Structures
1.
Amino acid sequence: MKMRQVQLLGGIVAFGALLFIGLLSFFRAPPKQEIKPEALQVNTTEVLVARTDIGLGQVANQSNFRWQSWPSEALSPAFVSRSNNGEKIMMELSGSIVRSPVTAGEPITAIKLIKAGQGGVLAAILPKGMRAISTRIKDETAAGRMILPNDRVDVILIRRLQSKDRGESFVSDTMFRNVRILAIGQQIETKDGKKTEASATTATLELTPRQSELLALGNSMGEISLTLRPLADLVADGANPIADNPLNKERGNSIKLLRYGVKSRSYGVN
C-alpha cells in the first residue's frame, strides 16, 4: 500500500514538472531578431581632385591628379567629372601652372590653373584692375628682410629737400597703407613662414594704376621703406590698399639739418 502511494506521488510530481516546463516554454518571449538598418543609398560621381598638395606656381600634370567619388548633390559645375569628358579635360589641364595653392583631396577647377602661354604666374595671381610694381629693399628698409609674400605693409617715402638758404631737411611720411606683398625677389610663395632669400633686392607690391605711378615717382625722389603690419589689421582695414598721396600735401614729419649755422626750412610731403 505504501509502495503504490509512493508511485502515485512520483507520477504526480513528474506530471507537474512536465506541465511547468511546457507552460514556461509557451510563455517565453520569442528571441529578438536583429534588425539591420537599411543601407543609405547615396548617388556619387567621380570628380578630379589633387593627389597631393600642389603649390603656387607649380606645374601640374596627370601625376598630380586622381579620381574620387563625390556626392552628386554636392557636385559643383566648376568640378571636373569623369562622366562629362573628364579624361579629356584632365589631359588638357595637364601642364598648367597653379595660380592658387591646392590641397590634397581638393577638387580641381579651371579657375585655379592657367595654361602655359596665357601669362606668367604673377599675372595669374594679380587681381583684376590691380598692378604689380617693384621697389628696392634692403635690411634696414624691409624689416630686416623678414617680410614675406602675402604680408601686408605700409609704404613710407623718405626724401631730402634743399631750401634757398642752402639748408637741408629730410622729410618722411606714409604713402600707402595696407599694401599686399606679391613677391620678394623671385619668390612668390613662402612655405612654413621661412625667411625670404637673403639676396633679394626688390619687393613687388600690389597697387592700383594711380598708386603705381606715385610709387614710381617716390622711388625717383627718395628712399622707400616698408613697415610690416600685424595680421589683426587685416580685419580692421580690409584687404584694399589705402592711399595717403603724400606727394600732393604740405604736412609731415621732418628732421632739420644745420648748414653754415643757418637753420633750414622744414618741408613736409604729407
2.
Amino acid sequence: MIQQSVAALQKDDKFEGFLLVRSSEQRVGNNGSAYLDLTLADNTSEMNAKVWNTQAPAPGIGTVLKVRALITEYNGRLQMRIEKYRASQTDDEIDYSQLVSSAPEPPENMLAAIYATIDAMTNPVLKPLVKQLVDDAGEPLTYFPAAQRLHHAERSGLLHHMTSMLRVAEAILPCYPFLDGDLVRAGIIVHDLCKLGELKSDTLGNVKDYTQDGVLVGHLVRGVAQVEEAARALGYSHQDEYVLLLEHMIISHHGVPEYGSPRPPMFPEAEMLHWIDVVDARMNEMQGVLRRLKPGVFSEKIWSLERRLYHPRYLSEADAEGMDADGTQDEEDNRPDPDAAYERLL
C-alpha cells in the first residue's frame, strides 16, 4: 500500500488512499443540510474531514475507508473535503501498520523496562504486589492504548504512558530525597492498569467505546479492588500500610472530584503521582496537536485542555530556514485572528 502520509499533506493536495476512522458523527449545518464530520488517520497523524450534503450514516469508529479528497484549510488547520469514499473490502491490499498510530518503542521493550523497575524495588510489600498486578494484566497490556481520544491514544499507549512517567519520576526523585521512590514507581505502574477493563480496544489499539464496567465503576475504583484482591492472594491485609497507600494513590491520582477522584492526594508520593500523570498526559496531547499544526498557527480550542494551543516557530524546525535574522517570516504572516470564530471538534 503506497500512499501519501497524512502528516505530509498540504493545502490543495489531492489524496486518495485508505484511512482509519478515529471519530465519526452525522451533523446538520446552519443551512439545514446534513453532513459527516470525521477524524481520519494514518500512523503519522490525523485530520478532520467533511463529507458535505449527505444523509449517509456515520461510519464505525475503527473501520477503514478508501477516500478521495481535496485538502483545504479552515482557521489555519488543514481539513479534508471528501469527494468520494467507501468502506474497505476484503480484497483491498491494506497495510495496517501504515494506518495505526503506535507507541514509539516496541511493546516488549517497554514491558521489559517495567519489569526491570519492579525487580529493582526493595520494598518487601510493593515489589511482589506490583509484579502480581502486571502479571495479571497479561497480553492486553502489550497493545492497549491509554485512552480513547486523549493522551497516548495509540497502540501500546498504556505502556508508553507508564514508561514515560517512570522516566519523569527518575528525573524528579533526586530533587526530593525524602520521597519513597518505590512507592512513587509502584503508583505509576499500577495507577491505570484497570483501563484494560474500562475500554473496548482491539489488538490494533482502536477503542470503540467504554465497557459497561468502565462507565458504571471506572478504573480508579476497580483499581483499588484489584490491589486489595492481589494483596489478599499474597497474604497481605488491605490494612497493611503500603497496600493502603497504594490504594489511595490509585483513587486520588485524578486529583479532584471533578475528574473522578473522591479523595485528593493526601501524602507526598500520591501528590507526585498526580502531577507526573498530568504532565505526561498534557505533554503527549500537546505534542499531538502541534504535529497537526503549521508553525505560527493557533489550534481550535482543545476541549480536554480548555484552551487553544499555538505552534511556536521553533528554530529547530524546517520553516526556520525562511526566517530573517530578527526572527520574522519572509512571507506574509497568515496566522488566524485569535478571536476569530473556530469550529470545536469532538
3.
Amino acid sequence: MLTVDFNKLNIKPGDRILDAGCGTGRHLCEAYRDRGIHVVGIDMNWEDLRKAKYTLFSMEHSTGGSWMTSKADVTRLPFKDEAFDVVICSEVLEHIPDNRAAVSELVRVLKAGKNMVVSVPRYLPERICWALSRDYHNEPGGHIRIYKKRQIQSMMEAAGTKCWRINYRHSLHVPYWWLKCMVGHKRENSSIVNGYKAFLEWDIMKKPLFTRMLDKMLNPLIGKSVVLYFKKDVVHGT
C-alpha cells in the first residue's frame, strides 16, 4: 500500500533516496525497482528492518541500484548535509516527541532544489480514532499528536521548504481503523474487523476498477493520510 506517488518526483538514475522511518520497506522497495537508484532506509525497529532487508536482497538481481538499511534516529540522522536527492518520511512524525528536530534533520540531508514527501494521518479520521479508543494513542510508540494540514505545512516551510502538492490517500482504510478502535484495537477475534481486513487485502491484490474509483472519490473527504510534497529552498549567493 503506497502512500507516495513516485511518478511526481522526477527520479533519475543515480539518485540517492532516503526513506526515514522505512518500516518493512514499502516505499524503499518501490523506489529500488527503478534501475540505477540508490536507496537508504532507516528505522528504530530491528524486526521491520530485517523484513525490509530480506525484500531488498531478493530484488538485487533485477535492478542496477544499491541499497542500505540502518537502525537510526530521525532526529539525529547519520548522514552529511545534502546527501540525498529525495527524502521520504511517511507516517512517522506523529510518533516523534521532538518533531521539529526531526524535520530539521530531514531538510538538512536533502539537496537544495530537491523533493521531500511527508505524510501523516489526516486530522478528522485520526481524531475519531482517538475519540473511539484511548488505548489507540496511549500505547508505547503510538501516535502522540494529531496534525492539521496547515500545521505540518507551516512547520515544513519554516524549516526551509516550499509545498507544491497536497493530496489524500487510503480512504477505504479509514473504516477499518474506526472498527478496530470500537472493538478494541488489539482484539484479533472480531469477525467484522477481520472481514473488512480481508476485503482490503483483496482490494490491494486485485485492484478492481470499482474500488479504485471509490477510493479516489472518497479521498478528498475521508482520506486516511494527508500527503505533502515539498521542494527544498535554493539559497542564492552563498
4.
Amino acid sequence: MLQPVLGSRPTEQEEAALIDSASHVAIFFTIVLPMVAASIAAVALLVFFLCWNEYLFAVYLAGNEAMTLPPWMVGQLSMKEAQIGGEAEEWANLSAATVLMMAPLLACAAFVRRALSRTALWQR
C-alpha cells in the first residue's frame, strides 16, 4: 500500500543527502520517514481496522477456543432471545461489551488523527 508513496526513484532530498555523504540509514530516518509519516499512519490505521473486525475468519476458520470479540458478542444472545428482544440486563451487558470493543479503535483513531494534524502543521 505504501509503494506509490515511497516510489521507486530517489527524491531530490535523498540525492542531496547522498552527495553530502549521509548514510542510507540516516537518509531513511531523517528524510524519508518524516516525508511519509502521514501515509504510514493512515495505512497502519486501515490495517488495524481490517484486522480488528475480521468477523468471518473468526467464525468459520477458528474454533471456539480462538474467538474474536464480534463473534463472541453474537454468541452472547441466543436466537430466541434475539427474536423476542431479550432481557434488559442482557442488552445492557451486550452494550457494555460493544463499548469496550470500540474503545481501542477510537483511541487508535484519535492518536493517528493527532499525529496527522501535527504532521500537517509541521509541513507548512
